[in-house]
Amino acid sequence: MTPVPALTITPLLTSNQVELKWTNTASGFVLKETSSLSPTIQWSSVTNVPVNANGQFVVTVSASTGNRFYALSFE
């Protein structure tokens, strides 16, 4: 089984966005999001396409959508 890469989340305060990054050496992972961690958790795929930059996949999402939780899922 492929180990799950570390997911780094960085707020971009000047643009009200959040940048999510993970290594591009681990293929087959999909970024998922949910608005609640209460059971039963309903994960959905983030629709923003990852950009390959400096050895990492990078996705930028809006920070104004309320609470969001992110995870990488091997698919």
How does this structure look, described?
- The chain has 75 residues and is mostly beta strands.
- It has one domain (8-74).
- It has strands spanning 8-12, 17-23, 29-34, 44-45, 51-53, 56-62, 69-74.
- The strands form two sheets. The chain has a four-stranded antiparallel beta sheet, with no helix packed on it. Strands 4-3-7 form a three-stranded antiparallel beta sheet, with no helix packed on it.
- The protein is flat, with a radius of gyration of 13 Å.
- The mean pLDDT is 92.
> Roughly how much helix do the residues carry, as a percent range?
under 10%
Instruction: Count all strands and give the number.
Output: 7
> Please, how many domains?
1
The stretches of 5 or more residues where confidence is low (pLDDT under 50) are none
Average pLDDT rating: 92
Strands side by side in the biggest sheet: 1-2-6-5
Radius of gyration: 13 Å
* SS element count, helices: 0
Which outline best applies?
flat
Estimated structural class: mainly beta
| N-to-C span | 12 Å
Encode the helix/strand succession as letters.
EEEEEEE
Largest sheet: 4 strands, antiparallel
What share of residues are in beta strands? Answer: over 45%
